[in-house]
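#structure-requests
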Amino acid sequence: MSIINVSQTLAYRLNPHLSDINFKKSCEKILKKSKRIKQRTLSNILAHDNPENSFIDDGQHIYIWYLAIGSMINPISLYLRDLTPLISYPVKCPNYRLVFRDSCGMADIELCEGEAFHGVVHLLPRKQMICLDKVEHMYKRVTIDIVDYQQRFHRVFVYKMNLIGQEERHIGIPSERYVDIIVKGCEHFGVHSSYIDRLKYEQPVIPRKLPSTYETINNIPNDIYYTDEDLLKHNGKDSMFSLWISVNGKILEHTGLPSNDHPNYENQKQFYEFVLSHLAGREVTHAISKAWYEPMYKLPLNDDDLCDEHRALVEDMCVSWGLDNSRKNSESYWKPIGRLCQISKKSKP
């Protein structure tokens, strides 16, 4: 794992205890809901396995060997994205290191002879892997070789972050939330404690914000409300209507992409395409709480599971993504136009 040099102001490390109680409760809840595959069925599928291949074809279905290096190590993240591995186990990935890239500090792999990092391999149905491909829009799937803790080799798929032009994205610092998700997942699936300790005690993180410092989307027009039906019309499927989303009851309109020679064009284009595919024309607070799981809070199985503080966190995340055009010296491609009347009482003033 690559440990990057940072100034003293960013020399903050994970506090893994903040989320212990809620993570344990969440795991207990999904364990009750999960259905385990019968051992006989699993054995029949694995009988068709070839370690040289990153997939299994049993003649009826195709299954994908997938190495999780970030959020998908965590069982709650898997559950919230409707991913149901047939089997999961910890592995070591030789001659690569884990790095965190871009301003958001997302996990990526980097070729590095002599180094190694650890992760968790899942065997997923092909349909689920295709769905995950769409979610991981900043990545492409590549194959690499891993070794399990019994020293058995296997070829697997892993997500490698897309280049910008011909260049790798810059090294970044991950959030405390993100590293907490990875650490909790590593502990759950039995990754070596030495690797977990490196994540806990050596990897710099951006500390979690205090709820009192959460930022809100501002400049919402007064006394302008829209219904769910109004919002749905703006789901991007009809060119007559601009693209809208609602964040914590605050409706935002997409104002267009920057010019294609703008340095932020590719990032904004990818984000727009993600919103168009997954969030357009609806209230997104619950969806974002699932996609960007925060272990400190209750498992967000439905909208009612979100407390006011959790909703405020989601709104703060959206502000950090540039969805608030009131911030100084920032470029936003979204404009607040009103509120969603059904949940306006829950949104912040």
